[in-house]
């Protein structure tokens, strides 16, 4: 019996990441309807927009779904109230101290999962009482850990230290990757980049096509002084690198980043001046397709790979 499918009452241990500007109700409901766990990304939504997406998701699926909440969100109190009022049963927290909201959410009957990038934070999350942990390696897109620990290094180290269910994230877009993560100790996987390039993703078509066009080495983890983020190497990225050559202050980096840079790139489709966040695995993504097909392919690939490993020899 799989710990993740049991915890969330889903068919497959595949969780769609709550990516800003990509993870609206259409994607979340599609993933849930296909047997995974869909996640609405609250990080790019004003409170009332989040409420609307939750309500639409409830109408679009009868299956479990969750909400990802970056805890640095300025309206965090209002966001949490909406989640409770709307009866959301699963919350993924990230970018903050899990002790802040875990007890409150669990008292409301909500299953809580926290996203970490190190063993130290995994232990703190377990101590805070979360139900499961997402351990994310630096291959991942979006905001990331500063230590550049790879997923396949991080998962067995975290597994060694914690006893609660473990979800692997970062660089996983295929069934083979899913199998490898589970062999290393994960109970399930969280998938971001592959779902960003899905039909139901709320990202701009320009961004989706750019994901498909990314080749190996086409992304880089940068802006560690602010919040580490993996970017596609477009004009904005080159501007960041040019500024780094001048040994910039944190204030100069903030000035270059400006406001709504991620929205400009991923949601509005500005491929030059926008911030384009995606994982290293984009080099293995070659098409845009419905979320249900992505899940079907992953499960088929997983089963094939599992059978093939039984025949391995040395």
From TrEMBL:
Annotated InterPro entries: Aldolase_TIM, NMO
Keyword Flavoprotein: yes
Keyword Phosphoprotein recorded: no
Superkingdom field: Bacteria
Keywords per UniProt: Flavoprotein, FMN, Monooxygenase, Oxidoreductase
Entry's Gene Ontology molecular function annotations: nitronate monooxygenase activity
Protein name: Nitronate monooxygenase
Lineage of the organism: Bacteria, Pseudomonadati, Bacteroidota, Flavobacteriia, Flavobacteriales
């Amino acid at each position: 019996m799989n710990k993740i499918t049991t915890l969330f009452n889903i068919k497959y241990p595949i969780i769609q990441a709550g990516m800003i500007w990509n993870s609206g109700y259409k994607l979340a409901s599609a993933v849930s309807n296909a047997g995974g766990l869909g996640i609405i990304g609250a990080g790019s939504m004003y409170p009332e927009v989040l409420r609307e997406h939750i309500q639409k998701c409830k109408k679009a699926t009868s299956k479990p779904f969750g909400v990802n909440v970056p805890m640095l969100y300025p309206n965090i109190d209002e966001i949490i109230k909406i989640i409770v009022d709307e009866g959301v049963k699963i919350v993924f927290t990230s970018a903050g101290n899990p002790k802040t909201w875990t007890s409150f959410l669990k008292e409301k009957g909500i299953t809580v999962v926290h996203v970490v990038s190190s063993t130290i934070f995994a232990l703190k999350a377990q101590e805070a009482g979360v139900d499961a942990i997402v351990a994310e390696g630096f291959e991942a897109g979006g905001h990331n850990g500063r230590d550049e620990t790879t997923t396949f290094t991080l998962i067995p180290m975290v597994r060694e230290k914690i006893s609660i269910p473990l979800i692997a994230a970062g660089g996983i877009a295929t069934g083979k990757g899913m199998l490898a993560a589970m062999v290393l100790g994960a109970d399930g996987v969280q998938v971001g980049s592959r779902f960003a390039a899905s039909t139901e993703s709320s990202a701009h078509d320009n961004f989706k096509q750019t994901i498909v066009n990314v080749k190996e080495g086409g992304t880089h983890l940068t802006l560690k002084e602010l919040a580490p983020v993996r970017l596609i190497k477009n004009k904005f990225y080159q501007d960041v690198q040019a500024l780094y050559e001048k040994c910039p202050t944190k204030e100069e980096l903030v000035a270059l980043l400006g406001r709504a840079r991620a929205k400009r790139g991923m949601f509005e489709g500005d491929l030059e001046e926008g911030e384009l966040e995606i994982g290293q695995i984009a080099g293995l993504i070659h098409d845009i397709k419905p979320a249900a097909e992505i899940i079907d392919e992953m499960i088929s690939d997983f089963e094939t790979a599992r059978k093939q490993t039984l025949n391995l020899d040395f």
